Amino acid sequence: MSFQFKVLKEINEANNKARLGIIKTTHGIVETPVFMPVGTQATIKGILPKEIDELGFSIILSNAYHLFLRPGHQLIRECGGLHKFMGWDKAILTDSGGFQVFSLGRINKINDDGVTFQSYIDGSTHFINPEKVMEIQMALGSDIAMVFDQCTPYPSNKYETQLAAERTYSWAKECQKYHNRKDQTLFAITQGGLFHDIRKENCLKLIELDFPGYALGGLSVGEPKPLMYEILDHIVPLLPAGKPRYLMGVGAPESIIEGVTRGIDMFDCVLPTRNGRNGCLFTGNGKISITNARYKEELGPVDQNCHCYTCQNFSCAYLRHLYLAKEMLGPILGTIHNLHFMKQLMENIREAILEDKLESFKRDFYNNYLVQEETT
Ligand SMILES: [Zn+2]
After folding, report:
1. Range(s) of the domain holding residue 168
2. Together in a domain, 262 and 306
3. How far apart are the CA of 329 and the centre of ligand 1, in A?
4. Ligand 1 centre from 196 Cα, in Å?
């Protein structure tokens, strides 16, 4: 068996359900809670796979929908699979594209059979359904594949949400039927928007299908964060204790901490890398915009306490100059710093769980970290 998950420690307090775990994949071990950097186009923008490895990441995320449209999953299979194609030999999770089909493409037709949509790249027409989505991900050869789901936007009414949740359930069953790659595991995605009753029903039905892992989809799509946390409070306790729980599209440091304390094991988000490219850098005191005039003559690093390559070698003044001059090294150094920040955050969280100090860690984090409004 190529996929295994083991809970090493679980806290069971009223406001703290955090757990430490380990995921075994065909391409190595992943310690949880984990943050997965996003490499949508088979590359994490602005950083070498070697550097991702050196930063200590053991799993990254890529996207079936994007790779299906370009360069095509058959080509990637011919090139030896996604790991070989992109030069990354550790674990990869591929999202099915359910979210992208409904948010990026122009939908021509959607029904229980699948979705006909136009490519956002060249307007060409495509049809995908659970069988196709499994074919794509099996060709890519990721370690963890995701079922095809229908993600509802925020806000959505109850009728639309119910319909999408039911479709997600029947598509999950279909995906299970067509998925047959032994060195790849398949996770389910629960939907149901912000409706507690739909979420619960969808979740319980999916649990009956006995998937090796469960993701919460359709969150972090623009809703106020307290509403997302409420859903986690409601749904996470229903999920099987012995299987990984993955909160999709969430990566703001404060949301990760809130997710972890509610028992989430896995996170992914474009936020750290996208912010890095835009000069929005994470520090222990919150985010800073490095292009701000206040950093013009700042000779110190972005974060005094950061041990990343960027902070060890460059001043804020230099970074600001690179961004303003539109030099490509600016986004590269910003990405290295932000990913290092995320890696360190997850290590600190795991250490705090191990030492029963998560509550004080959380308190210290909020005392220092200025939370700014951002959707994810
Ligand atoms: Zn740094």
Report:
1. 4-269
2. no
3. 14
4. 40
pLDDT digits (tens, 9 = 90+) for 122-147: 999 999 999 999 999 999 999 999 99
Q: How far is the CA of 340 from the centre of ligand 1 (A)?
A: 7
Statement: residue 36 has pLDDT above 50: yes
pLDDT, residue 291, reads 98
Number of domains in the chain: 2
- Distance from residue 368's CA to the centre of ligand 1 (Å): 17
Give a yes or no: residue 274 inside a domain: no
Which runs of consecutive H residues, i.e. helices, occur in the chain? 49-55, 64-69, 73-78, 82-86, 98-103, 130-140, 158-178, 196-208, 225-235, 253-261, 271-278, 309-313, 316-324, 329-354, 358-368
Q: If you write DSSP's letter for every residue of 148-207 in order, what string do you get?
A: ---PPPSS--HHHHHHHHHHHHHHHHHHHHH---TTSEEEEEE--TT-HHHHHHHHHHHH
Catalytic residue of the set 265, 268, 303, 364: 268
Domain identity same for 83 and 224? yes
55 within domain boundaries: yes
Check whether residue 328 and residue 244 sit in a common domain: no
Asked about 183 being catalytic, the answer comes back as no
95 flagged as catalytic: yes
247 and 358 together in one domain? no
Distance 225 CA to ligand 1 centre (A): 27
CA distance 239 to 363: 27
Q: Which residues surround ligand 1, an ion (CB under 5 A)?
A: 306, 308, 310-311, 337
Q: Do 257 and 286 lie in a common domain?
A: no
Q: Look over the chain and give the mean of its residue pLDDT values, rounded to a whole number.
A: 96
Q: Identify whether residues 307 and 263 lie together within a single domain.
A: no
pTM of the model: 0.98
CA of 192 to the centre of ligand 1 (A): 38
What spacing in Å lies between the alpha carbon of 306 and ligand 1's midpoint? Answer: 5
Do residues 156 and 193 lie in contact, with contact meaning Cβ atoms separated by under 8 Å? yes
Residue range 254-279: average pLDDT? 98
Nearest to 137 by CA among 185, 71, 86: 185
Considering 95, 143, 149, 265, which one is annotated as catalytic? 95
Domain with residue 185: its CATH number is 3.20.20.105
Last residue of a domain, one of 202, 235, 269: 269
Looking at 269, 304, 327, which one is the last position of a domain? Answer: 269
Q: Would residue 57 count as lying in a domain?
A: yes
